[in-house]
């Protein structure tokens, strides 16, 4: 990259921030059991790996479908992103050959690698990327691209994003679906079925998908990184029941499994202690939560949200989830050892206070102008959606119990993850979601701008703002946060953002998400993926997402 001195400084500051954030509560996935840290030897080509996932996904088309960690594994198998974060936290070119910015951080120019083809044989060039951009700009990723005022094709391999405001963290955005090019030929031909027929440039090409059963991908023989991938096939098998997922691994039905449930993290580690299973775990700036739809009464009223938060004991919630001694309690979207952690926000976070909770709820109930338009004295009521996983069923029951104790009637509804994501994201053009409250995950290892900007920008038409919450001050801070290179000022800005969220409570938190991958000893390369130069290392299994590009079987 040919950065100017100023942009190199900004990249260094952003990289430093991401490095420190990645160390929150467990580093970059570094704790392993068994002999996982040994020299794994020379990779061997061939074979098939089956991994059991925690849930199914709605689909796999960038700009159309929103996915959680299980779906992200599929995306990184089928698609390549323009850039990725290395093990040190620095954003580096991946599918892009290089990138650079202007000194004012308002123009970002990327150059594609030559001679890259999609799985259908069509060429990756800037004409395709330009057409992709139009779709992304109008789809579920529109919020992420809101500040891109112009997309410019410079030549067949060079393109440029022109931003309406400076953004030091813009490349971080392109590590995800916004930066994953897809075949326009396939997009046009498949039409409404494109979500179930993804075509990218990635190491594996899509073969078939039997929803709620198995998705199969096969080695891309023309992959642009010579010698990769090693595996012939990868099968992704959704098994929502946590105990059943572990049983499929211990019985040999699958080769790998992942989880983001503390109860299963503990059980998998116990199973590994008395067997030859390997476990790899990660904990960072992601937290379990209850997400409130602040566009819908009665959760549009701060008193109700604060009352619900003050009713809870996070320690008890963690215990139900099996996270005691595993997950850190949280008061914000950053762990205590993250540079973005705010002591002020921690002090403002609602602690359990049942009397205060009852008082806040009663204030709303007795208000003639209450937002739900119900008669004075009518109890607060809403529906709470959560997945049918046993630990989450127990969690939802505990929420219901706590909230009933402060005068709130909660109806519980079990919703599979793929359906839950679709309900929360909502449909165009408003994307306001069709839910009251839901168990959810929040946070990421990305730069705070990527984590927070679109999540709390103007919600109308913004699929990323799943809580539908914002304030003028919050939007002002988020704009300032991406516009300055001063790391100390950025810490102040995001500290104030965290404080606003603690006071307004668009969500409650249950503690850092402990993520784990477990595998049989024949599965190698889980922790050690590299960049195209084959020497620069990536950050292993962030949030249990495996990059299968360099996974291999010791057969």
Task: Kindly describe this structure.
With 555 residues, the protein is an alpha+beta fold. It has a domain at 285-513: Dipeptide-binding Protein, domain 3. It is 30% helix and 21% strand. The longest helix is centred in the N-terminal third of the chain and has 18 residues, at 5-22. The chain is globular. Residues 1-37 have low confidence and may be disordered.
Name a few traits of the molecule:
555 residues; alpha+beta; Dipeptide-binding Protein, domain 3; eleven-stranded mixed beta sheet; 30% helix; globular
- Helical/strand content category: alpha+beta
Q: Write the CATH fold name of the domain at 285-513.
A: Dipeptide-binding Protein, domain 3
| SS elements, strand count | 19
Uncertain regions: pLDDT < 50 for 5+ in a row?
A: 1-37
Average pLDDT metric: 90
Radius of gyration of CA atoms, rounded to a whole number: 23 Å
| Name of the CATH superfamily of the domain at 285-513 | Dipeptide-binding Protein, Domain 3
Largest sheet entry = 11 strands, mixed
- The N- and C-terminal alpha carbons lie at a distance of 40 Å
């Amino acid at each position: 990259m040919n950065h100017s001195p100023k942009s190199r400084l900004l990249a260094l500051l952003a990289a430093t921030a991401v490095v420190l954030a990645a160390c929150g509560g467990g580093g970059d996935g570094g704790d392993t059991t068994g002999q996982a840290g040994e020299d794994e030897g020379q990779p061997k080509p061939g074979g098939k790996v089956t991994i059991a996932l925690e849930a199914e996904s709605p689909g796999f088309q960038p700009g159309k479908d929103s996915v959680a960690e299980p779906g992200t594994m599929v995306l990184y198998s089928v698609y390549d992103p323009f850039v990725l974060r290395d093990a040190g936290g620095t954003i580096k070119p991946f599918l892009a050959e290089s990138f650079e910015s202007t000194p004012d951080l308002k123009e970002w120019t990327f150059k594609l690698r030559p001679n890259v083809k999609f799985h259908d044989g069509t060429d990756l060039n800037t004409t395709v990327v330009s057409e992709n951009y139009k779709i992304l700009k109008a789809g579920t990723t529109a919020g992420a691209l809101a500040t891109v005022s112009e997309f410019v094709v410079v030549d067949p391999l060079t393109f440029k994003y022109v931003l309406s405001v400076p953004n030091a963290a813009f490349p971080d955005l392109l590590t995800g679906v916004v930066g994953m090019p897809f075949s326009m030929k396939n997009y046009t031909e498949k039409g409404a079925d494109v979500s179930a027929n993804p075509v990218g440039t990635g190491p594996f090409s899509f073969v078939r998908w039997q929803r709620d059963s198995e998705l199969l991908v096969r080695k891309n023989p023309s992959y642009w990184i010579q010698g990769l991938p090693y595996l012939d096939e990868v099968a992704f098998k959704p098994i929502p029941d946590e105990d059943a997922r572990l049983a499929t691994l211990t019985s040999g039905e699958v080769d790998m499994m992942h989880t983001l449930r503390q109860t299963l993290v503990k059980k998998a580690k116990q199973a590994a202690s008395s067997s030859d299973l390997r476990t790899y775990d990660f904990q960072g700036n992601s937290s379990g939560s209850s997400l409130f739809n602040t566009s819908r009464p009665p959760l549009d009223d701060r008193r109700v949200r604060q009352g619900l938060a003050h009713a809870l004991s996070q320690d008890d919630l963690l215990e139900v989830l099996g996270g005691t001694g595993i997950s850190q309690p949280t008061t914000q979207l950053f762990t205590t050892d993250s540079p973005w952690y705010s002591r002020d926000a921690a002090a403002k976070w609602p602690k359990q206070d049942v009397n205060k909770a009852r008082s806040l709820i009663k204030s709303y109930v007795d208000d003639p102008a209450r937002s739900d338009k119900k008669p004075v004295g009518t109890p607060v009521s809403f529906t709470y959606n959560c997945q049918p996983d046993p630990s989450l069923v127990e969690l939802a029951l505990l929420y219901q119990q706590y909230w009933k104790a402060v005068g709130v009637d909660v109806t519980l509804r079990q919703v599979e993850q793929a359906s839950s994501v679709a309900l929360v994201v909502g449909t165009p053009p408003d994307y306001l979601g069709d839910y009251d409250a839901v168990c959810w995950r929040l946070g990421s290892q990305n730069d705070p701008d990527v984590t927070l900007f679109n999540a709390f920008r103007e919600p109308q038409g913004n699929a990323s703002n799943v809580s539908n919450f914002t304030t003028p001050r919050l939007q002002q801070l988020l704009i300032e946060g991406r516009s300055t290179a001063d790391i100390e000022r950025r810490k102040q800005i995001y500290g104030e953002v965290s404080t606003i969220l603690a006071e307004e409570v668009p969500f409650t938190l249950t503690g850092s998400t402990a993520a784990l991958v477990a595998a049989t000893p024949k599965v190698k390369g889980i922790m050690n993926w590299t960049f195209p130069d084959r020497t620069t290392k990536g950050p292993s299994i962030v949030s249990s997402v495996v990059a299968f590009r360099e996974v291999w079987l010791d057969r």
